[in-house]
């Protein structure tokens, strides 16, 4: 599957979610939203890794094995949840992010094409700070913020390819970061499956009655953890970052080769 923006990817996922892979009698989803099968289908749709026993409700979305992304600078910064230099101050709550890949149990390959020269222009309505300095724009810094986050967010996937690095040094930097991120993983996907099997299919889910009974006792404890009202201010001292590269990375980004004198 190829996609050119988070909005496009979300639209494709929704369309594929409308079609079940199997046509078995017990995979039919009733119209009653409270019916057990409807609830189970909803649980598997969003959390197939947690509820593999409901795989009979798998949709065509769950069968996706490879994804190719070619987003803009701003879209990548949001999609991969970049927080460096307070960029998360521009994130929209509940936005469509790379967390959606957790809904794809068979995803085994991701190809991410970093923005190229044609995407240097920033849309005036982008939910982001001014990314490029008017006099000395530095696409290298923005690209680095993106691929450094990719190394962390996609560490659980074995086959990840990032294209369009400015130079071999950036590519090596990404490979080193990815290797470190994978070494820090507590559980690999295969180990999660083994753990699930050892637990006999997971843990029992509380009934709605049990949840109501424990709500009162947990409200006080969770109130101290709420942070929705905290306002985070952007790092205006960083944006837009001016280029301090030895040779203009903006020229290199646009495909201009500057020879050393």
Would you mind describing this structure in some detail?
The chain is mainly alpha-helical and 261 residues long. The protein has a domain of 157 residues. Helices cover 35% and strands 6% of the residues. The chain contains eight helices and four strands. A four-stranded parallel beta sheet has the order 1-2-3-4. Helix 3 links the parallel strand 2 and strand 3. The chain is elongated and about 65 Å long. The protein starts with a strand and ends in an 8-residue tail after the last helix. About 10% of the residues have low confidence.
Strand order of the largest sheet: 1-2-3-4
Compute the number of helices. Answer: 8
| Major β-sheet annotation | 4 strands, parallel
Structural class based on helices, strands and sheet pairing: mainly alpha
- Strand tally: 4
The low-confidence runs, each spanning 5 or more residues with pLDDT under 50, are 207-231
Radius of gyration: 22 Å
* Overall residue-averaged pLDDT value: 82
Q: What does the overall shape look like?
A: elongated
Helix content: 25-40%
- SS strand fraction: 5-15%
State the separation between the terminal residues, measured CA to CA: 45 Å
- Secondary-structure element order, as H and E? EHHEHEHEHHHH
Structural key phrases:
mainly alpha; 35% helix; 261 residues; 4-stranded parallel β-sheet; 6% strand; 8 helices
List the helices and strands and how they pair.
Elements: E1 2-3, H1 6-16, H2 36-46, E2 66-69, H3 73-79, E3 109-113, H4 139-153, E4 160-163, H5 168-183, H6 189-198, H7 208-223, H8 249-253
Parallel strand pairs: 1-2, 2-3, 3-4
Helix pairs in contact: 4-5
